[in-house]
Design goal:
single chain; 181 residues; alpha+beta; four-stranded antiparallel sheet; three-stranded antiparallel sheet; 6 helices; globular; Ptrans_KptA/Tpt1; EC 2.7.1.-; transferase activity; RNA_2'-PTrans_C
C-alpha cells in the first residue's frame, strides 16, 4: 500500500471510528467496536477502498497506534480520542509523577487560565514522553510543551486511565497542576 493511500485511509478510519460513524452508517457498539467486513463494505459504498491486508498494515504501522483489532480480527476500534460516547473499559491507573501535554503557543494563556479541557472528546490526552507531546502541539502552530504534575493530581484524588496505545487520559487538568517548560 502506498503511504499516501495509507494516510488517507487512516484519517478516514479516525473519522468513522472516533467521531462520525454515521457518515457511512457504520454500526459501532457501546465499546467502540465495528465489524471489519461492515467497515470495508460501507467504506467502499463511499468510494474508500482497502483490503483486509491494507487495514492490517494501517493498524500495525500507525505511529500513534490509533486502532486495534479484536483477537480474531473481525472487529476494529480506535484506542482513544473518541468524541462519540464509548466505554473502552479502561481501569484507573496510577500515573507517573509527570506527564506532558503539547499545545500551540496561542492556546497557552487560555490553558493557564481555564486548564486543559477535554472539549468534544471523552478525555484529556497526556503523553509520557516529551517528543510525542511536542509533535501533538506542532499540529496547530508553534508547539509549547506543558509539564503536568500528575503525581500530585493523583494524590489529590484525580483519576487517570492508560489507553491500549499508552496515551494517558483524564477528565480535566486544573491550571494549578501545569508547568511551562
Amino acid at each position: 500500500m502506498n503511504e499516501k493511500h495509507n494516510k488517507k485511509t487512516s484519517k478516514f478510519l479516525s473519522l468513522v471510528l472516533r467521531h462520525q460513524p454515521e457518515v457511512i452508517n457504520l454500526n459501532v457498539d457501546e465499546k467502540g467496536w465495528a465489524g471489519v467486513e461492515e467497515l470495508k463494505e460501507k467504506s467502499a459504498e463511499n468510494n474508500i477502498y482497502f483490503t483486509l491486508e491494507e487495514l492490517d498494515e494501517i493498524v500495525e504501522t500507525n505511529d500513534k497506534k490509533r486502532f486495534i483489532f479484536n483477537e480474531d480480527k473481525t472487529k476494529i476500534r480506535a484506542n482513544q480520542g473518541h468524541s462519540i460516547v464509548v466505554d473502552l473499559a479502561l481501569k484507573p491507573q496510577q500515573p507517573p509523577e509527570f506527564l506532558y501535554h503539547g499545545t500551540a503557543e496561542n492556546n497557552v494563556n487560555s490553558i493557564l487560565e481555564k486548564g486543559i479541557e477535554k472539549r468534544n472528546r471523552q478525555h484529556v490526552h497526556l503523553s509520557s514522553d516529551k517528543d510525542t507531546a511536542s509533535k501533538v502541539g506542532m499540529r496547530h502552530g508553534k508547539p509549547i510543551l506543558l509539564t503536568i504534575m500528575t503525581g500530585k493530581m493523583h494524590q489529590d484524588g484525580i483519576v487517570f486511565y492508560l489507553s491500549e496505545n499508552n496515551v494517558w487520559l483524564t477528565d480535566f487538568v486544573d491550571p494549578e497542576y501545569i508547568l511551562i517548560q
